[in-house]
User: What shape does this take?
Amino acid sequence: MTNARDQPAVGREIESADRIDIVLAFIRWAGIHSLLSHLRRHTERNRGLACTHYHLRGFNGTVTSKMHKGPGECLSRESPVEFTSNNVTYALPSTWKQRVQELRELGDVSLRTYLDETSQELDDVYRGNYTWTQVRRAAVFDTSAAVEGEAKTARGIVRLLHVDDQRRMDAYTALLNNPQAPNVATLDTREQRQLQDLLLTVLNPGNKSYNDLQSAANDLWRFDQLRHEILEVLELLRDQIAHLHQPLSSNYPVPLQIHTQYNREEILAAFGASTVDKPMPLQSGLYWHKPSRTDLLFITLRKTEKDYSPTTRNLDYAISDQLFHWESQGKDTVASERGQNYIHHRDQNRTITLFVRLAKKDPGTGRTMAYFCAGNALYVEHRSERPIQITWRIDHALPGDVFASYRAAVA
Assistant: This one.
C-alpha cells in the first residue's frame, strides 16, 4: 500500500483489519512512525496484533542478508508481540554511534530536519549527556575545536528542554541572536532576571563560580557553537507549547507565566532570590519572598521513601481543576505563625503561589522534573493539625490534561 490516489488508504486499512501479521516499510524511519496512531487505534478495538516489524532503511533486493544486522539496518521480531510504541524504538538510531551514522547519511542538515527524518525527539539527541554539536563534530560536519570548558556547559542544554512558553523563548532568542554577550547594565530588572534564568539553568553554577551576572554571561557567550545550538533547540521547543499562558504577576517584575514549566532555579531567579553569583540551594518545599510578600509552595505529588522523609511525605492532590488539597510541614500547627500566615494570608496581604510536579524524577529520562506554575491561590478551609490540611482555590483552572495527570498521580 502506497497511499497513492487510486490505492487503499494505509491508515484506514490498518484500523479496520481483523489481524495484522507484518508491518513492512521500505522507506526511512518515518515509515513505521507515521503508522503508530493507526496501530494504537487498531489495538484499542481489542484486536490482537501479531506483528513482525521489518524496518528497512533502503530496499535493494537483499532483504535476507540484512535481516539480522540489528537496529542500524532493520528491525526483526519473529514472535507475536502485543503492540506498543516501544516495539519500534529499536528501529530508531538509539545509540551514540547510530545517531552519528544517521547524520552522516542524511548530510549536513539542521537539527529539525534530522529529527524529522529519524523520527526522534529532542530527548533522544541529548540522551547520555551528548549534544547536537557533538553529533555534528563526530559526523565531521562541524570542524571547529571544542573550547575549554565547553563540555561542562554543553551538558546544561538538556536542562532547557522543559521550556514551553513563548515569552521566555522570545527573550532567550533575542539575547542569544547577538554574537556578543549582552551588556547587563543596559537591561531592565525583568530582562536581567530572564538572563539569570538562562544562565542558572545552562551553567548550573556553584557558590562563587562567578563574581556577577556579566561575568557569567561572558562565559556562556564564549561557546559560539553552543549558542547556535541553543537557538535551534528553542525554535523546536515552540512546537511543544501546549497551554495558553498569562503573566503570573503584573505588579512585580517576575517573568513567570501561569501554566508553564520551570525548574526551581528559574523560579527563584525570577523572584530575584537566586543569582549566578549567589545561587540559592533551596532544600525545603517552601520559600517566603518578602519583597513581593509571596509564599512559594513547591509541591511534588508522588513522594518516594528514597527522596522524602516520613515528615515531608505529605499527601497533596488536585480535588478539581480549581481546588487543591495541600498539607503543611509536620511541625506546623494551626496556632503556629506559619499556620496563621496561610489561613489569614489575605488579611496579611500575602500571596500564595503553587508550583506542582508529578515526581522528583522523570521516569522516562531520569532527569529532575520541572514544576508546573499553577498560579496564585486563595485559602478555602483547613482540617486537622500536624500537618495542617489546607484546601486552596487556584485563580486559574488547571488545563484538562494537567488535572487528569494530577488525579492519576495519586489514584
Remarks:
- The mean pLDDT is 82.
- Residues 164 and 239 are 9 Å apart (CA to CA).
- Residues 94-143 form one domain.
